[in-house]
Design brief:
The chain is α/β, with parallel strands linked by helices. It has seven helices and seven strands; from the N terminus they run βαβααββαββαβαα.
């Protein structure tokens, strides 16, 4: 008999991916302070993909305490440019600076997903996508952000690849689901292996 599935994320995009895949789940975002968890990791040599993994696990374990008889999906994504790790921009000025920083360069989106049962991580996976942004004129960045508005604040890169953000790109190496923030194919494979979804 399959268990219930809980998504420990406030991300509209992750909810949409699971819903579109036909997964029956409930959603309960964790209320942990992610930046507080991450702060001690900043200068410890932990890689951006490991940070994503740690945050995904922390959120899923937190929600699992309230749902001990269900499988909890935790997910997180970081953006790395060289040695620097980025998170969602706090405001439009930060979004503008983010796009200027990424302009003409290749950055990486590190997407982690975990399954937690009774507070224990029982499966984990991380996928990385490399995206090369074309050189962007500052005037274009301003017009682009004025057009997309606050949607720019909902992703780590200040863009939505599934919408107008695709116009910012020159090349992409990685799958769509990793870029959106949930490595869906490995997750579905694991849920099928466990008999939680029909396979």
């Amino acid at each position: 008999m399959s268990k219930g599935i809980v998504l420990a994320s406030a991300s509209v995009h992750r909810r949409e991916l699971l819903k579109n895949a036909g997964i029956d789940f409930t959603c309960e975002p964790s209320e942990l302070d992610e930046r507080a968890i991450e702060a001690p990791l900043k200068d410890s040599g932990v890689s951006p993909d490991e940070i994503a993994q740690i945050l995904a696990e922390a959120k899923a374990v937190d929600v699992s305490e309230r749902h001990p008889n269900e499988i909890v999906i935790g997910a997180d994504q970081t953006l790395s440019l060289g040695d620097e790790t980025f998170h969602k921009p706090a405001n439009m000025e930060e979004a503008r600076r983010r796009l200027l920083a990424l302009s003409g360069k290749t950055h990486h989106l590190n997407s982690a997903v975990v399954l937690v049962e009774r507070g224990e991580v029982t499966w984990r996976h991380t996928s990385v996508a490399a995206l090369t942004m074309r050189p962007l004129d500052p005037g274009f960045i301003g017009r682009h952000l004025a057009h997309v508005g606050s949607k720019a604040l909902t992703s780590v890169g200040a863009y939505q690849i599934e919408k107008e953000g695709i116009q910012l790109m020159e090349a992409i190496d990685g799958d769509y689901f990793t870029i959106i923030g949930l490595p869906l194919l490995p997750l579905l494979k694991e849920l099928r292996r466990r008999g939680e979804i029909d396979g």
